[in-house]
From TrEMBL:
GO cellular component terms, A-Z: membrane
Species assigned in the record: Glycomyces buryatensis
Protein name from the UniProt record: ABC transporter ATP-binding protein
Nucleotide-binding in keyword set: yes
Keyword ATP-binding in annotation: yes
SUPFAM superfamilies in UniProt: P-loop containing nucleoside triphosphate hydrolases
Gene3D superfamilies for this protein: P-loop containing nucleotide triphosphate hydrolases
CDD domains: ABC_cobalt_CbiO_domain1
Domain ABC transporter span(s) in chain numbering: 8-248
InterPro entries to which the protein is assigned, alphabetical: AAA+_ATPase, ABC_transporter-like_ATP-bd, ABC_transpr_CbiO/EcfA_su, P-loop_NTPase
Database matches in SMART domains: AAA
Gene Ontology MF terms in the entry: ATP binding; ATP hydrolysis activity; transmembrane transporter activity
């Protein structure tokens, strides 16, 4: 994309469910050349926010525009193929017996498992090259249920990229990975973040150590409200993290990686 375009535009967004206020007056804009990390404690509303961005949920009040289309005034089934999504809910919907190759390939049809759909050779090539790019092409014929957590995460990111989306949403992609697998995934996502041809990205995480270099912006959430949002070096600070997590934290930047500890 030569020129930056607005891919997400949330204005005064509130989400209420079952008497709970999940999001409270969120204003947030994401441009196509930005890569955002969303941080906050358990229950802050991160997944709720990602589900709005994924056109999987609607706000109770306020407006959400995704890729220039307003939720509530657009057929979400036309919008969803433009959005690559990797979440626990997606991971849990994949049949265990599905081959890794088909986990990726079925995204072309917006399906979770193979049925009677037909694929053209371009779909096959794309699925194979994504598995290769994520370093898991040797697993193409393995049933999804037999993959390790780290292997699954990579296959799910390949699946999220299958439709060549304009927006890529990753919910805790490094959760459950061992140190080596986490570092390898951070490096892969860093490469993607720095690729000008890659989609706009929003990555939800609990841990600053998991922020891939190349991510440009941060949104810090707490109790459904924005604590800080903007360029990562301005929004991600000891102060914003301490406020969000409710304890004194010191954030340290080591080159282009971060650590945070209680002080
Ligand atoms: N359908 C619902 N009805 C009532 N409360 C809900 C509903 N869905 C989510 N919540 C509550 O809304 C809050 C925000 O949930 P959400 O999953 O968005 O948080 P999160 O930041 O992703 O949390 P975590 O880091 O633990 O995954 C939580 O307190 C959750 O219990």
């Amino acid at each position: 994309m030569a020129q930056s375009e607005r891919v997400l535009d949330l204005s005064g967004v509130t989400v209420r469910r079952g008497g709970n206020q999940l999001l409270d007056g969120i204003d947030w804009q994401v441009e196509s050349d930005q890569r955002w990390v969303v941080l906050g404690p358990n229950g802050a509303g991160k997944t709720t926010l990602l589900n709005l961005a994924a056109a999987r949920n609607h706000p109770t009040s306020g407006t959400v525009q995704v890729l220039g289309e307003r939720l509530g005034a657009v057929d979400v089934f036309e919008l969803r193929p433009l959005i690559g999504l990797s979440t626990t809910a997606v991971a849990e919907s994949i049949p265990n017996g599905e081959k890794a190759f088909d986990v990726v390939r079925t995204a072309a049809w917006g399906m979770m498992g193979r049925w009677r759909e037909e694929y053209d050779p371009l779909d096959d090539e794309r699925a194979a090259s994504l598995l290769r790019w994520l370093g898991v092409s040797q697993l193409a014929d393995r049933p999804y249920g037999t993959l390790s957590e780290g292997e699954r995460k990579r296959v799910l990111i390949a699946r999220a990229l299958m439709t060549d989306p304009e927006l890529l949403l990753l919910d805790e992609p490094a959760a459950g990975l061992d140190l080596g697998a986490r570092e390898a995934l951070v490096a892969t996502l860093s490469g993607l973040a720095r690729d000008a041809a890659a989609p706009s990205m929003v990555l939800v995480t609990h841990h600053v150590e998991e922020i891939p270099p190349g991510f440009t912006h941060a949104l810090v959430l707490s109790a459904g409200a924005v604590v800080a949002a903007g360029p990562i070096e301005e929004a991600l600070t000891s102060e914003s993290l301490s406020k969000a997590f409710g304890l004194p934290l010191t954030l340290t930047a080591n080159g282009n990686r971060y650590t945070a500890i209680a002080t």
